[in-house]
Design goal:
By secondary structure, the chain is an all-alpha fold. It has one domain. It has one helix and no strands.
């Protein structure tokens, strides 16, 4: 199935937003874990 350029751009934007969200979550968890390890 072919999709329009608008649909493609919308999909790419949604994927990028999800990627950014999970990168932020991963960074947050990594920082917390680093702080935990350094406290020991």
């Amino acid at each position: 199935k072919q999709i329009s350029e608008d649909e493609l751009a919308d999909g790419e934007t949604k994927i990028q937003d999800l990627t950014n969200k999970y990168v932020e979550e991963t960074d947050s968890v990594a920082e917390a874990k680093e702080a935990e390890v350094m406290a020991v």
